[in-house]
Each structure stands twice: as C-alpha cells, then as structure tokens.
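== Sequence, structure tokens ==
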Amino acid sequence: IITNERYEYISSIIKGCYTKSNKEKLTTSDKIDRIVTNRWAALPIFAIVMFVVYYISVTTVGTIVTDWTNDVLFGEIIPPAIEKVLVALNCADWLQGLILDGIVAGVGAVLGFVPQMLVLFFFLAVLESCGYMARVAFIMDRIFRKFGLSGKSFIPMLIGSGCGVPGVMASRTIENDRDRKMTIMTTTFIPCGAKLPIIALIAGALFDGAWWVAPSSYFVGVAAIIVSGIILKKTKMFAGDPAPFVMELPAYHLPTAGNVLRSMWERGWSFIKKAGTIITLSTILLWFLMNFGWLDGHFGMLDMETQLNDSILAKIGGVIAPIFKPLGWGNWKMAVAAVTGLIAKENVVSTFGMLFGFGSEIAEDGQEVWGTLAHSMSAIAAYSFLVFNLLCAPCFAAMGAIKREMNNTKWFFFAIGYQCGLAYLVSLCIFQIGSLFTGATFGFGTIVAVAIIIAFIYLLFRPYKQSKTLKY
C-alpha cells in the first residue's frame, strides 16, 4: 500500500511537468499483453502453450529421436558391442548378466528418454527467455490468490518443472512462513524432468502414443496444487491471507541461442549425471535382488527366466504389493517399480526394463510391450500408476531439500505423508471410478472412492470458519 501511494504521488507530480506526444500508442509488448494476460483468454492460452510444448516433446519430435535412441543406439549398437567385448574377455556369466541385464538395460532405458527431455527443456528455456513465463506468474497469481497461495509460489513450481530440488529451494523467496511451507509441500506435484520418462512410458507403451496423456499429467499436477491450496488454507495451520506479490514484467524479446542452449544443456546434463551415478547404483542393487534368492532351502543365483518369483525382490514386492491392489496394480513388479521411484523417479522406467526383460526397448509403443504388461495392468490402472508416481513423495534428493527448507522434522514428515496420502487417494479414485466405464462391477472399492470424492468436495466448499475468528 505504501509503495503504491508513493508511485501515485510521483505520477501526479510528473503529469504536471510534461505531456506525452504518443499517449495513446501502445508498445508491442503491451499489445501482446492485452491478449496473453487477458482476464478470460490468459488461462486458455497458457493451456494451449503447454499442450503444444508437451505434444511436440513427448508425442512427435521427441518420440522420433527417442525411438532411434532406443531401437538403434541402445538396441542394435551398444549392447552387442559390449557383449562382444565381454565374450572376448571371457567374463563370468554373472558379470555379463550384471553389465548387460542390469546396468545397460536399466540405465539405457532411462537414457533413451534424454532426447525427449532435451526437446522439453528447449521449449521451456525459450518461454522463459522471451518473457512469457513472467506473464504466467502474473496470471497464476490471480488464480493462486483465490486458493490461498500467491504468485510467488508459481516461481518455485516453474523451476520445479526442471528439477524438484531447486524448485523447493526457490521457496525461500516467500516471506510468509505459512505460504512458504504450503509451497514446499505442493511444488513437487508439477512433473519434473525425472518424471518425464514415466509419462513417456505410459503414453507410448501403454496408451499407444495417445496425445492427451502427457498434457493431462501436467494439469493433474496443477489441479493437485489448487485443491491442496484450498483444503490446507482452511485449516488452522495455514489460515491467513497470502503474501502480496509485486513483480516487473520484462518487455518481450527474442531469446538468444546461447542462453536457450545453455539452459537446455544444464538441465539435461544434470539428468545424465544422475543416470550415471544414482541410477547405476540402483540398477546394480536391483539386479542383485532380482537374480539371487532362496530355492529349495539354498541361497544362490537364480535363473531369471524361470525363477524370478523366488528372488529377494519378489519376496519384498510380495509384502508391499497388497497395499496398491485397490489402485489396480497390486502385482509385485509394479509395487517394486513405484517404490524404487523414491530413490530417483527415473528408476521406475529402469525397473520396468529389467523386470520385463526389454531393457531400452521399454519405450517402444509396439504391441509386444503392451502384451507383456497387460496381465499386470489395465489401461485405467496404468493411468492410476502414472498419477501415483506424479503426486507421491519425490526422490530422496528432493526429500532432503524439503527437510532442509522445513527445518523441522514434524513438518517434514507431515509434508511427505500428505503427498503420499493424496497420491494414494487420487489414484484409488481414478481406478475405482474409471473401472466402471470399462466393464467393472460396482463394489466395495467403488463405495470407498465415492466416499473419498464426497469428502474432497466437502473440504473444498466448506465455510472458511478460521478467517472469521482469526485476530491480527
């Protein structure tokens, strides 16, 4: 208020000192802003922009390059070359299995999605450099403010589209402690670069390249943020007005090639480094758990083709699988893939590649892959699996950032518990309600899903009682 009054006073003095000759003439940026920041057109334009970005990145251009990377580079060139070297060196069978079926299959399945990620990062860098993303923050402030968040909360979410760690750390710019905590809890709902391989896997292998899967995953994240903002703001922990948001909108300009390419490469390289470290170690551990177990009372190496169900991994997965049965994917392989995503989200894809023996070819949209997975998941269960992995707790690195920024153990566990709980409930509703449209019968699971939806509606529209009694 003080700043606004100061500028109004300055403007009143300036008006008496000079006359503008081109008073009615608008700059090019102002003309564009009249359209892209329009009260009614802004959100549809933003939705169309993000749809085009994901459509090109995941479904068209990105898929063409990724298919070549999977089919040729990691399908016909690298594995045979490594196998020849291992045979020439007379390596033991277990070592060949570790390198080919573990490291190459697991890491290759993840690296095959790098082209799609680079295309996505390229478009995001262009939108940031030209000045459009600053307008998006302004647009979202108007929306977020109605749901208890400020436009400042959008900046961490925008950064989080690349990686959740800097996205969570960017919440430091929010002065209001309640808004900052809520932003930390909801930032990772936006699909980060590490979740893109999961989106591409579901869209390509399980939905035959359907155009709507990738954009819908982005808007599911936005919807989760809005719903969370409304529900949490009506609790005593987060009650209060959101912090004011003031920002300068830069003039539109053509992005420089150097800045765009540098931003694209920095984001892509951080993903590649993670694949070379965390994911490699994870695939080695998974290979061991998959290939060793107890058979006839003896512990040792198993035959993967016939004895996978006797492995250590199968025993662990069998314990946790019933938890996910109401979500439509109670198979131990799916449960293990979801849990390994907590180490790094890319692990979900590498785990699929190793468990189903397709390695880097897991990204193909051929019928062979769908036929292999069909016994484990239906189409609606596959989308439930996707949504769960998008909304549940992020990778260990992002969890560490949440712990550091919360600076409170209780708040940290509350944030992780809320993320996992919301992911579970939303996925359950998707599967149980969606199954009714695919021939399933109305049962106990459907009743639970309907009750959850009613509870969500009540929490969204209940009176904001805290605001009436809150004292300042």
Remarks:
- Confidence is low (pLDDT under 50) at residues 359-370, 466-472.
- The first helix runs from residue 2 to 15.
